[in-house]
Write a structure and sequence with these properties.
The protein is α+β, with helices and mostly antiparallel strands and 149 residues long. It contains 2 helices and 10 strands, in the order αββββββββββα. The strands form 2 sheets. Strands 3, 4, 5, 6, 7, 8, 9 and 10 form an 8-stranded antiparallel sheet that branches. The protein has a two-stranded antiparallel sheet with strand order 1-2.
Length: 149
């Protein structure tokens, strides 16, 4: 019995969702449940890097730190400006394209592109990176498997 209690407490302490809050984001044509780090302010309306309005939600964490889940009008555009001559997309297991880098100030940014959806963050410290990666990963829709396996 003691082992079960200790094991349960250990699992709770090591949970990747610790420090995150469940939120529902809405966009044109649907909604999605995601996990976001606590202590945020929502920003509405949402604009892309070309100052065009887009559907979705952006969470502000102060000092320029943002987490976003947005739907863009076409699949070729970015929410944040990504220089594709310097950054190469990595294929995510769910079929999405992922860009991730450290800027000149040593802050992390990431953008995942899945169809017209864009999930990502900007200006995140090394210590907060795991929480924000977990938040972005919670939004990615798994690829449908075909066949028996």
């Amino acid at each position: 019995m003691r082992i079960a209690i200790v094991f349960s407490l250990l699992l709770l302490a090591c949970s990747p969702y610790r420090g995150l809050r469940k939120q529902t984001i809405t966009y044109d044509g649907g909604s999605k449940t995601v996990y976001v780090p606590k202590k945020f302010e929502r920003r509405q309306p949402v604009y892309d890097s070309l100052s065009k309005p887009v559907s979705g939600e952006v969470f502000n964490y102060g000092s320029g730190r943002t987490l976003y889940f947005v739907q863009l009008p076409d699949t070729a555009s970015f929410y944040q400006t990504v220089d594709t001559t310097k950054h190469v997309a990595v294929l995510h297991p769910a079929g999405a394209r992922m860009y991730k880098c450290i800027d000149s100030a040593g802050r992390y940014w990431r953008e995942v592109q899945q169809g017209r959806m864009r999930y990502g963050y900007t200006d995140i410290s090394f210590d907060d990176q795991i929480k924000f990666d977990t938040a972005v990963n919670s939004a990615i829709t798994p690829r449908r498997r075909r066949g028996l396996f």
